Amino acid sequence: MPRPVSRPLRVTANVVGLVAFVVAAFPVYWMINSSFLDRNEIRNPVPTWVPFGGDLDNFRTVFETDQFVNAMKISLMVTLLTIVVALAFAFVAAVAVSRFRFRGRMSFIVTLLVIQMIPVEGLFISQYKMLETMDLLNTVVGLSLVYVSLVLPFTIWTLRGFVAGVPYELEEAAMMDGCSRTQAFFRITFPLLAPGLVATGVFGFIQAWNEFSLALIVMTREDHRTLPLWLSTFTDVNRGTDWGGIMAGSTLIAVPVIIFFLVVQGRMVSGLTAGGVKG
Amino acid sequence: MTDMTTDFGRPPKPRRSALPYLLLVPAAVALAVALGYPLVRQVVLSFQDFGLAQQFGKPPEWVGTDNYRELITDPYLWRVTLRSLVFCFVNAAATMAIGVGLALLMRHMSRWVRLLLQTGLLLAWAMPVVASLTVWQWLFDTQYGVVNYVLTELGFDYEGHSWLLQPLSFFFVATVIVVWMSVPFVAFTVYAALTQVPEELMEAAEIDGAGGWGRLRNIVLPTIRPVLLVVALLQVIWDLRVFTQIYILQQAGGSTRDTNLLGTYIYRLGIGGGKFGMAAAVAVFMLVLTVVLTAPYVRSMLKQEGED
Question: Residue span of the signal peptide, if any (chain B) (predicted)?
């Protein structure tokens, strides 16, 4: 039973909460709103707050810039390759860390945490040189390689939570019934992990989908840009001329991500806390 | 990120087997290739003269600490470093203050306001960084931006005001964007930690006559201290390395030289200017700076582990 809250405190908290809501949500609403407005409405000094009478012209403009569709293909290829590889690698590593005791286990976990602290910009010069040597600049494989290392530590971390959240006693019981250890894991634990795997995969997908700085140095050729790169150059080209088109492009990139994010974030939080408390 | 002091699951009894090591091989190899090797190579590179001539096949020369000496004697590096540090602390402090404040107030809001606020925060959190940058540029646009419109309507003289021309104003816009993006994570994490504060303790303190502030200081803050530390640590790391926001705003206007932070400076030296040896030296410097800044946090976190 929470204690009753004093009235002035509640009123203050509510006012602050509403103001914070407006500040947080307004840019997202404004992006979507502007993407439906035609040139004249956008250039009207008095802003149009609701896109009544809006149309889809801006979205048509975006799809007609040939680079958009191409960038979407590149982005999809890079993110899918990244996620498939990262999930596979992270999954076996998470099983090792949460189902076995072995020498160096703690060092591995600590290393993961330390890696999380390395700023991307602190390494991208030498990553660029490395990919150049390997002839992997401007390739899907090259960008995916650095992306795998980007999402791997966090992916192992969350999957470890999901695996640890499934009590080992369940596997032991199955082994009593005559399963081998491997069979027990795949029949009992693995099905319970499926939602966690999906959530972690989606989260990693979002990270790779949004990433900008590494894409900027690896994908220097125009026909190899990812969507964030495409959007930043599209903005340059259209500086102050076609805000409607820019907002439509932003909406196309952002809305799927927002929806995915809203779907998985609750599960991610439970994954991070699972296994910690239960032991 | 959750409480780092949790134990890591309770694995079954140790069995002498090579299996766990085999399971770790793919991840370890991927990290060694994509991060470990570049880290070593970067340190090597920072002691070499590696410029445009080397790009075209001339073997790099060892120059010892020349790159570092040149950097340290260049006042521009110190200006960029100071700028980065100030930007980092202002942003991290603003993010923490707003995020923790919202989390504390969330407990006192009516249910519908709290849900509304959490929805808004989730939207801001979910926005891809480049998309949010284009939107904020549009909001701050000189001619048609809402910000100038609203300020002018309120009676200020902001018609046609250019926000990105002056460095200070440029960094103000960058700060608004960074804080807007970072607050949700802090607010949600701290709010989750607040649910762990024991209710009995709060009631007992109230019976003993502790006021709201007293309860906050003596019960709430000590309980969530580990979480606050981790979150603050992450903010400092993230805000020190801020790159995308600065780079994209620089494309939009503003003098590059006056608005470079460490991340963009490394990029412009190396990828932009072809001085890879120098850029590597700045990058090593930035990594060391990150370690120096985060060492006190990490130490106090380890101390907490020791106490628990």
Answer: none
Report pLDDT digits (tens) over A208-240: 999 999 999 999 999 999 999 999 988 777 666
Of the candidates A117, A112, A95, the residue with the CA atom closest to the CA atom of residue A197: A95
Give the amino acid at A6: S
By CA distance, what is B146's nearest residue in A?
A47
Interchain pair B34, A109: CB under 8 A = no
Residue B256 has pLDDT above 60, yes or no: yes
Residue B259 in any domain: the answer is yes
Interface of A with B in 55-84 (CB under 8 A): none
- Chain B closest CA to A98's CA: distance in Å? 6
Which residue has 């002018």 as its token pair? Answer: B152
Residue B99 is assigned to a structural domain of this protein: yes
Cβ contact A254–B202 (<8 Å): no
Q: Tell me, what's the pLDDT at B210?
A: 77
User: Residue B120 falls within a domain, yes or no?
Assistant: yes
SS3 (DSSP) at A5: coil
Number of domains in chain B: 1
Kindly identify which residue of chain B lies nearest to residue A208, measuring between CA atoms. B128
Task: Give A-chain residues touching B276 at CB under 8 angstroms.
Answer: 125, 129
Structure tokens of A108? Answer: 């591995």
Give the residue among A115, A78, A169, A104 at the shortest CA–CA distance from B21.
Answer: A104
A134 touches chain B (CB under 8 A): no
C-alpha B87/C-alpha B240 separation (Å) is: 8
- Please give the average per-residue pLDDT across B97-107, as a whole number: 96
Q: What is the pLDDT of residues B84-99, one digit of tens each?
A: 999 999 999 999 999 9
CATH of the domain at B300: 1.10.3720.10
Q: How far apart are CA A241 and CA A104, in angstroms?
A: 58
Residue B293 belongs to domain spanning = 65-307
* Angle formed at CA B42 by CA B39 and CA B44, multiple of 5 degrees: 115
Question: Which amino acid would we find at residue A233?
Answer: T
Q: Cα–Cα distance between A20 and B114 in angstroms, integer?
A: 11
- Is B22 a member of any domain? no
Per the model's pLDDT, the better-predicted residue between A260 and A1 turns out to be: A260
Q: Which of A17, A125, A153 sits opposite B117 (nearest CB)?
A: A17
Residues from chain B that touch A7, judged by Cβ atoms under 8 A, are none
Q: b vs e for B52-73, b when ≥16 Cβ sit within 10 Å of the residue's Cβ?
A: eebeeeeebeebeebbbeebee
Q: Within the 43-102 window of chain B, which residues sit less than 8 Å (CB to CB) from chain A?
A: 45, 98, 101-102
A40-45 CB contacts, 8 Å cutoff, 24+ apart? A42/A243, A42/A244, A42/B144, A43/B144, A45/B144, A45/B149
Q: State whether residue A275 sits within 8 Å of chain B by CB.
A: yes
A25·B31 Cβ contact <8 A: no
Distance CA A43, CA A41 (A): 5
Taking CB atoms and an 8 Å limit, are B31 and A115 in contact across chains? Answer: yes
Residue range A142-196, pLDDT digits in tens: 999 999 999 999 999 889 989 988 888 888 899 998 888 889 888 888 999 998 8
